Fold this protein.
Amino acid sequence: MLLQGNPYPHITKGKDIPSYLIFKNEIKPEHNYYHLGDIVLCNSFGRPFSGWDCELYRIWDALFGSQMPVQFIATYGAQQIVHKDLITMRSRKFWEKAYELHYEYDYTAWAFELLWYYIFNSNYKSLI
């Protein structure tokens, strides 16, 4: 699981929501990626999801070799269940570059809340 801080305020709860049941270890995951919280569509500055004014194109261009989407899928609180295969599909150099971006842009942490879906999606090819 990839969790940021306290997951409970962001988790969508219910007996019919697979990600919640997986989180509680009541069922086994069938897929490699689940959102724990609600999702929202936003633009490349994070609007209307956030007021952080992230310039996602800077982060995107540093990490990905494909064209940036027009809309982004974001998960409230950046709470996800991610299989290790999705994490390891990116190279160590990719993860090191992602870490280094925190020193270049003060909004990188918030930008990643908007990018996790794409980072863990093999359809978006990384530069490294």
